[in-house]
Amino acid sequence: MRAGIQSLPGGQRMAGTALGLTPPQAYRFVLLPQAFRIILPPLTSEFMNIMKNSSVALTIGLMELTARARSMQEFSFQVFEAFTAATVIYILVTLIVVFGMRHVEKKVAVPGLISAAGAPQAGH
Amino acid sequence: MFAGFDFDVIERSLPFLFKEGMTFTLKLTAMAMTGGIVFGTLLAMARLSSIALFNVPAGAYVNLMRSVPLVLVIFWFYFLVPWIGGWIIGANQPIQVGAFWSSVITFTLFEAAYYAEIMRAGIQSVARGQVSAGQALGLNYWQNMSFIVLPQAFRNMLPVLLTQTIILFQDTSLVYVLSITDFLGAAARVAQRDGRLVEMYLFVAVVYFIISFSLSYGVKHLQQRIAIIR
Q: Residue B181 — φ and ψ, nearest 5°?
C-alpha cells in the first residue's frame, strides 16, 4: 500500500488540497482509488501467498488442507493419491485467484493509468 | 505468563540449541541457497530460451512450485525422494534417504523456482546491446552468458537474491513437520521436555529476529552502495 501511494505524483495530493478537500477526503476520492488500481498485480501475489501460508497452521494442529491430506495418508497409506489431491486443489485455487484478479483488473482499469512495473519480489 | 520467567532453561540448553539446531539450519540454508541459485539460473535461462523444448517445461515447473505451499512440497519430497532415488539407481524398492538430504533436496528445488524468477528479471535487465556486442565479438551463447550477461545480472539482482535467502533462512524452520532438529525444532524439544514453552519460543523468536533484522539491514546498506545509477 505504501509503495502504491508513494508511486503517485505528489501533484495529486496537492491538487486535492487546492480543490478544498481535507486529507481524509483527498485519500478517499483521489489517492486511494488510483493506488489500489496500481497495486492490483502485487496484491494478487500477496493474496496467493496468504492462501499458501495457511498451510503452516498445521503446526498448531489446525486441520487445513495439507493437514487433512497428511491424515488421509497416515490413515490409508495412500501417499501419492492423498497429496496429489491436495496439490490439485492448491493449483486450482491459485488458477482461480489469478484469473479472478485479472478479470477485476480489466473491469476497474482506468485508461491511461499505468500500473506498477513487475519488479521481482522475493517471496515464499 | 511472565511470572517466574525462567532464564536458566535458556542458558542450560544454549549448547544444544546452537550446536545441533543452528548448525543444521545454517547448513540447510547455505546448501539450499547455492543449489537454488545455480538451478534457478539454469531455469531462468531455459525460460528465456526460444526453444519450446526448454521454455515450456521450465515455465511449468516454476509456476507449479510457486502455486503450492512449502509444507506440502516438504511432504511430497519426503515420500517421493526414496522412490525416485531407487528408480534412478535401478533398485526395485525405495532407497533410504535421511530426513536431512530429503529436506536439502526439497528446499533446493523449491527455492530454485523463486530464484529463477529473480534471475529471469536480472537477465532481462541487462541491455540488449551487451548481448549483441558479445555476439559481434564471436562469443557463443554460453560464453556470452557466463562472461557478459550473468555477472551483470547477478550484480543487479544481488539485494533481491539476498532477501530471498533471508526468507529461505526463516522457511527452514518448517522442517519441524518432519520432526527434524533444526533451531526451532531443538527449542521445541527442550520446551516440551522441560515444560517451558514461553521462554524457549520467545528466545527462538528473539534469535530469528536479530539474525533476520541485521541481515536485512545489511542488504539495505549493500543496495545503497552497489546501486547502478542509469
A: -90, 80
